[in-house]
Amino acid sequence: MIEVKGNLWNHPADARVITTNGFVKKDGRAVMGRGIAYEAKQRYPDIDLWLGAMIRREGNIVSPLYWGLGDWGREALVSFPVKHNWWEKADTFLITRSAFQLMSLADLQPSWKIICMPRPGCGNGRLDWVDVKMMIDPILDDRFHVFSF
């Protein structure tokens, strides 16, 4: 895992990871109202509908949401659950599980050389990076670039 300062949207990537929660509204859209999830919703119209459908079908797990052309060429967008509900504090067990799931998904994608993600559970999730880093650093390899502003 490599720590990077800056904006993950401005960095070349084969995959971008957005931290998410498992709450789906009555209209079928996932709640994506803050942080990197909100930014993704602005960049990818109806991604909240895709994520809502994935959560209802598969559960609150790591899921590829988009494959296509981005600013830097072909890229993927992947959800990374950190909360069960949008109003809760991030769940450390869920973050650890998501890190293992993300690593497994990345291992199936040999073209993913650079995977950009925010600090999971920090910010709106209200966890301290020092604690989260201790959990995910042993799991994620150097393909993963973890961004902070």
TrEMBL record:
UniProt xrefs under InterPro entries: ADP-ribose_metab_enzymes (IPR050892), Macro_dom-like (IPR043472)
Checking Gene3D superfamilies in the record gives: Leucine Aminopeptidase, subunit E, domain 1
Protein species of origin: marine sediment metagenome
Example GO biological process term?
peptidyl-glutamate ADP-deribosylation
Record's protein name: Macro domain-containing protein
